[in-house]
């Protein structure tokens, strides 16, 4: 049976593509670890559920800090820090301890009343059950007319103390504008030829830099019983407004879609949506984890087609295609 694309294409390692709602069970090959009993699956889901709750708590802490900052409340803003917290600004000046941080905030509010802060998180990585690392940008907007906002990069280490997440170490760095090509170097490991084979299907992908160097372009082809059944093109670029990687995909069946990438260590989470050739809307969250120079895992969850939920796809492994003999 020919698989019907969920939306803009079916391909192992499609990096932002859905897979079909009706493909044969073996059209994508799950790694042995993906074969789970209900009890094993429940245990595997528990850490992810707890981590999601922790991520939500950290986001709420950042929101509380921004709210206190924008109100000029140094006491409340400092309360989001651990007692022994350290802050290093973009000039390398160090402020140690919650009390000293409170005093510095109060002095800043007095010098520039009405200044507001906006926090944009770009990546959050858990270092263990009670520690997390966050990267992002802060934008300070002065209250005075004609004054320009100032944006800095930041890195924050969060720790859990007595059941509460707090800022433990903060480092600010001056923003350096990078070209789209420089940004995409994070994904340069995708370049080359990749393959996933099962008893029923072979999915091959090839990734290379666009001629202008500002996009990565991927071509994918799915074959069943040696015959091509679906192909498509994906383009990956940098969105300077959302400050995230963005993907656009077009498949040979007439479907298309787009999605945004968020990094979590060696794992990329891609939330995407698109339109099938029959006009139905679809959405999906794909999770890609780099396992080494020549291996990666791929999983598809939270899938919808029209108004209905679609079963997810268990994690499976794709490998870099070895060079042909004599080359």
TrEMBL record:
<protein>
    <submittedName>
        <fullName>SgcJ/EcaC family oxidoreductase</fullName>
    </submittedName>
</protein>
<dbReference type="InterPro" id="IPR027843">
    <property type="entry name" value="DUF4440"/>
</dbReference>
<feature type="domain" description="DUF4440">
    <location>
        <begin position="58"/>
        <end position="166"/>
    </location>
</feature>
<dbReference type="Pfam" id="PF14534">
    <property type="entry name" value="DUF4440"/>
</dbReference>
<dbReference type="InterPro" id="IPR032710">
    <property type="entry name" value="NTF2-like_dom_sf"/>
</dbReference>
<dbReference type="InterPro" id="IPR011944">
    <property type="entry name" value="Steroid_delta5-4_isomerase"/>
</dbReference>
């Amino acid at each position: 049976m020919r698989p019907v694309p969920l939306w803009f294409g079916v391909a192992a390692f499609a990096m932002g593509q859905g897979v079909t709602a009706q493909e044969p069970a073996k059209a994508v090959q799950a790694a042995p670890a993906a074969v789970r009993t209900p009890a094993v699956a429940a245990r595997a889901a528990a850490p992810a559920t707890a981590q999601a709750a922790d991520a939500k708590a950290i986001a709420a802490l950042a929101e509380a800090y921004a709210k206190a900052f924008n109100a000029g409340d140094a006491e409340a803003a400092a309360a989001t820090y651990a007692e022994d917290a350290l802050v290093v600004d973009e000039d390398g000046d160090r402020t140690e301890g919650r009390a000293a941080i409170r005093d510095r905030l109060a002095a800043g509010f007095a010098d520039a009343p009405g200044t507001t802060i906006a926090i944009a998180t770009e990546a959050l990585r858990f270092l263990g059950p009670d520690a997390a690392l966050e990267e992002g940008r802060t934008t300070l907007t002065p209250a005075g007319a004609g004054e320009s906002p100032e944006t800095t990069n930041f890195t924050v280490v969060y720790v859990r103390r007595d059941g509460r997440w707090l800022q433990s170490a903060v480092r600010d760095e001056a923003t350096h504008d990078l070209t789209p090509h420089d940004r995409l170097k994070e994904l340069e490991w995708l370049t080359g030829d990749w393959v996933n084979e099962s008893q029923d299907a072979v999915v091959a992908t090839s990734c290379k830099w666009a001629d202008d160097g500002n996009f990565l372009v991927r071509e994918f082809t799915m074959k069943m019983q040696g015959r091509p059944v679906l192909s498509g093109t994906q383009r990956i670029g940098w969105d300077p407004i959302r400050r995230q990687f963005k993907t656009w995909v077009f498949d040979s069946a007439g479907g298309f879609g787009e999605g945004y990438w968020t990094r979590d260590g060696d794992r990329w989470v891609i939330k995407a949506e698109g339109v099938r050739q029959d006009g139905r809307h679809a959405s999906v969250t794909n999770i890609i984890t780099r396992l080494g120079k020549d291996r990666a895992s791929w999983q598809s969850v939270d899938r919808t087609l029209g108004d209905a939920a679609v079963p997810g796809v268990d994690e499976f492994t794709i490998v870099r295609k070895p060079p042909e003999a004599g080359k």
